Amino acid sequence: MAEVLLAVLVFLPVVLTYLLKSDAALGFLALCGGFTAITLSGSDIEHLFGKTKITSLTSNDVDLILLLAPLLLTLLLTFRAAASGRMRLAQLLPALCAGALLAIVAGPMLNSLVNTDVTTLKTWKNLQNAESWIVGAGLLLSLLLIWSGGFMHAKSHSRKHK
Questions:
Q1: Quick one: how far is CA 56 from the chain centroid?
Q2: Phi/psi class of residue 54: alpha, beta or left (left: φ > 0; alpha: ψ in -120 to 50)?
Q3: N or C, which end of the chain has less CB nearby within 10 Å?
Q4: How many Å apart are CA 141 and CA 63, to the nearest integer?
Q5: How many helices (H) and strands (E) does the chain have?
Q6: Up-side HSE of residue 21: CA atoms within 13 Å toward CB?
Q7: Taking the model in full, what pTM does it have?
Q8: Angle, nearest 10°, between helix axes 24-51 and 59-77?
Q9: pLDDT tens digits, the chain, 162 residues: what are they?
Q10: Which burial class, exposed, middle or buried, applies to 98 when counting CB atoms under 10 A from its CB (0-12, 13-18, 19+)?
Q11: In this structure, are residues 42 and 162 in contact, taking their beta carbons and an 8 Å threshold?
Q12: Residue ranges per domain, the chain?
């Protein structure tokens, strides 16, 4: 069960990116933004939920929402945004990095929800050991895809409109 959960976390962004033809580069950056929100203001947001009488949410639930919502919304909102051909396949690399980062961060949070411990798996420990490489590769690939997409749209038109 834990292996399946870990595989779902890693490959969910890849499958969504491929099926929706979404922009995984923006998805990776949105996931990084969600992680930053958890790290810097997670306790403040949890305190806000406590004041609004939403007591059924635990801190793990709030953290999972802050982590998953930006990624999933970005992949849904960039529906059909990826170019076809090689550029579409290139989107799968940042999606894989996003999935690996999602598994590293969300794995421990999901332990209490699904009554399984993914942190004892050798695969999760290998992912955690490669975390800096995953983040670095994901960031570099995402920025290269975003920058190259901007250059592709900057074509000059030789025809004059009358």
A1: 25
A2: beta
A3: C
A4: 26
A5: 7, 0
A6: 10
A7: 0.83
A8: 140
A9: 889 999 999 999 999 999 998 999 999 999 999 999 888 886 777 666 666 665 677 778 888 988 999 999 999 999 887 766 777 788 899 999 999 999 999 988 888 788 888 889 999 999 999 999 999 999 999 999 989 875 555 455 556 655
A10: buried
A11: no
A12: 2-152
Which two tokens mark 66? Answer: 């802050």
Cα distance from N-terminal residue to C-terminal residue, the chain: 65
| Tokens coding 145 | 């895809």
Joined tokens for residue 158: 């030789």
Q: How many whole angstroms separate alpha carbon 54 and alpha carbon 56?
A: 6
Residue 27 host element (H or E): helix 24-51
